[in-house]
Amino acid sequence: MAVAKKAAKPAVKKKSAATPKAASVKPVPAPVLDEVSAYIVAAGPARKQVLEHLREIIKRAAPSANESMVYRMPTYMNGDKFCAFANQKTYVSVYLGDAKVADAVRRQHPQVKGGKTCLNFPDGSEIPFATIERAVKMLFG
């Protein structure tokens, strides 16, 4: 003799008034940062404003230059001309890609130290943004 099994009743989910429907809550995707923006954000709040301002003046002074990351630095290139900036441990560096242009900046601001085409601005020092913008225009002009 065969034993008949009872059909299982479908489970009924109780609705809770306290929890919203999952379908009505959609996650908002985080904005995707390009490499240069991510570099600036990673520099921290103390340097972010300086690096953003450098980026703005370089883009304004050299609108035809392509922005990319080269040697882990934001770099702006057009043909064989380039400039870049970098967040260092205790200073910000601006690389002008031409010793004559960097020397012109140093003549106006003798306190600025650096290498052949590099200008270093220690934390707490004044950065001559207007002079850097003119130098970038001279470089790409």
Describe this structure in words.
The chain is of the alpha+beta class. It has 4 helices and 5 strands, in the order H-H-E-E-E-E-H-E-H. It has helices spanning 35-42, 45-61, 99-108, 129-140; strands at 66-70, 73-78, 81-87, 91-95, 118-122.
Number of strands: 5
Separation, N- and C-terminal Cα atoms: 99 Å
Proportion in helices: 25-40%
Task: Outline the biggest β-sheet.
Answer: 5 strands, antiparallel
Helix/strand structural class:
alpha+beta
CATH level 1 class label: Alpha Beta
Radius of gyration: 28 Å
Question: N-to-C SSE series?
Answer: HHEEEEHEH
Low-confidence stretches: none
- Mean pLDDT across all residues, rounded? 87
Number of helices in the DSSP assignment? 4
CATH topology: Aspartate Aminotransferase, domain 1
CATH architecture term? Alpha-Beta Complex
Basic shape = elongated
Number of domains: 1
Strand content: 15-25%
**Strands of the largest sheet, in order across it?**
1-2-3-4-5
What's the layout of helices and strands?
Elements: H1 35-42, H2 45-61, E1 66-70, E2 73-78, E3 81-87, E4 91-95, H3 99-108, E5 118-122, H4 129-140
Antiparallel strand pairs: 1-2, 2-3, 3-4, 4-5
Helix pairs in contact: 2-4, 3-4
Brief digest:
The chain is α+β, with helices and mostly antiparallel strands and 141 residues long.
Question: Features of this protein?
Answer:
single chain, 141 residues, alpha+beta, Aspartate Aminotransferase, domain 1, five-stranded antiparallel beta sheet, 4 helices, elongated
